[in-house]
Write a structure and sequence with these properties.
Elements lengths: L6 H5 L4 H8 L3 H4 L2 E8 L4 E5 L2 E7 L1 H6 L12 E6 L5 E7 L5 E6 L5 E7 L3 E7 L6 H14 L2 E7 L7 H11 L5 E3 L20 E5 L6 H9 L3 H5 L2 E3 L5 E3 L4 E3 L5 E3 L2 H4 L7 H7 L1 H7 L16 H8 L4 H32 L21
Parallel strand pairs: 3-5, 8-9, 8-11, 9-10, 11-15
Antiparallel strand pairs: 1-2, 1-4, 2-3, 4-5, 6-7, 12-13, 14-15
Helix pairs in contact: 5-10
The protein binds guanosine-5'-triphosphate and zinc ion.
Main location: cytoplasm
Keywords: Cytoplasm, GTP-binding, Hydrolase, Metal-binding, Nucleotide-binding, Ribosome biogenesis, RNA-binding, rRNA-binding, Zinc
Organism: Cohnella luojiensis
Length: about 375
């Protein structure tokens, strides 16, 4: 069938990009049907197929071949499935290569990447215009956004509580040159028009920000109704009772898709070397002018960064956040090296790119 003509797949974001991506997969994968993951449970998924919502599990072979947590499907992924005849169930054979991915490194004894949202076009970074306003937090969410490949957009909510929002916007612009900043008041219903640029048919948007900044309020306001109720397709279960389908990817009336996963709500620290360099590009630029190439920016011995802090050209707080983030990333990197060393000693046969967190450009699991 022509997947580009299917109204459901199209509504969930299937387009020529994905059609081309699929054409690069092998024939066994091409024979399957595409579907998008709309919710994730511990051992199963809800997916949107060309004939509506199904529950799904991965095949035994998929499980066998999966080397790490990030190989498994995640909300927002396009998966290739076999639909079981006369049932609202499917089995997942493969994940199409992710266009963007929000990756969280779970720091435990073993570092495992966790995909908390796939194929986002935009990441809305939400911060409130009250005493919770925190430009350092925005900086860190930006690292995550740049690293994921999604385009960041800063939304300053609760604008009704603030007399001079422009002051706050300037602070954001200082740490995030070029990143759009918008004011929102869900209370007064202000600021929706500016979001029209992002909320377009087939575009997927993630929402992140600390607890209480107004994410749920924002999402419900954008949807026009409480989201879980909007999308909660009521289905009869075996006993004939009604249950509401759990969702983490929602289709709004204007055609945009919004992702609201528990993991994305409160991002921890990110494995995010690339994103970090991008978020602190100004400091990296200064660092290039330090006298010593391995300058740690601790003493002012020819250190261009310290010099900039002393002269006021660089905000001391921004510099301290830079150092703090650097230390945490270094700590995670050490842990990762230690754990991948352990794994390779244990198995002796190395699986490709095991410790690499960036998404592969090939489908995670290929049928033979
Ligand atoms: N004054 C004002 N209050 C708002 C606005 N948006 C949200 N709030 C309030 O802020 C509080 C927190 O809002 P939520 O939407 O629950 O925040 P959240 O970010 O979803 O919080 P978590 O669910 O903990 O992640 C609620 O009491 C909202 O009514 C706004 O635009 N103006
Ligand atoms: Zn230096």
């Amino acid at each position: 069938m022509n997947t580009l003509q299917n109204a459901i797949l199209q509504a969930y974001g299937w387009n020529t990009y994905w059609d081309t991506a699929l054409s690069h997969q092998n024939e066994n994968i091409q024979r399957l049907s595409p579907a998008r993951v709309v919710a994730q449970f511990s051992h199963s998924y809800n997916i949107m197929t060309e004939s509506g919502e199904h529950s799904a599990i991965v095949t035994g072979k998929f499980e066998f071949l999966a080397a790490k947590r990030g190989d498994y499907p995640s909300v927002g992924d396009w998966v290739m499935v076999e639909r079981l005849p006369n049932e609202n169930r499917s089995v997942i054979h493969a994940v199409l290569p992710r266009r963007t991915a929000m990756v969280r490194k779970a720091a435990g004894n073993v570092i495992e990447d966790q995909i908390i949202g796939a194929n986002l076009d935009y990441l809305f970074i939400v911060n409130a215009l009250n005493q919770d306003f925190n430009v350092r937090k925005i900086e860190r969410f930006l690292v995550a956004a740049w690293d994921s490949g999604a385009q960041p957009v800063v939304l300053l909510t609760k604008a009704d509580l603030c007399d001079e929002p422009e002051n706050f916007a300037r602070q954001v612009e200082n740490v995030a040159p070029g990143v759009p900043v918008h004011f929102i008041s869900a209370l007064l219903g202000q600021g929706k028009e500016a979001l029209g640029d992002y909320l377009r048919a087939g575009i997927t948007i993630g929402v992140t920000g600390s607890s209480g900044v107004g994410k749920s309020t924002l999402l419900n306001w954008l949807a026009g109704k409480p989201l879980q109720e909007v999308q909660g397709i009521r289905e009869a279960d075996a006993r004939g009772r009604h249950t509401t389908t759990h969702r983490e990817l929602f289709l709004l009336e204007n055609g945009a898709l919004v992702m609201d996963t528990p993991g994305m709500r409160e991002l921890q620290l990110w494995e995010a070397q690339d994103g970090w360099e991008h978020a602190f590009a100004d400091i990296e630029e200064l660092a290039a002018q330090c006298r010593y190439r391995d300058c740690k920016h601790d003493t002012d011995q020819g250190c261009a960064v310290i010099e900039a802090v002393n002269s006021g050209a660089l905000d001391a707080k921004r510099f301290s956040n830079y150092k703090k983030t650097a230390r945490e990333l270094a700590h995670l990197a050490r842990k990762e090296n230690a754990s991948s060393l352990k794994t390779s000693q244990k198995t002796q046969r190395s699986k490709p790119n095991k410790s690499k967190l960036r998404p592969n450009k090939k489908a995670y699991l290929q049928e033979d």
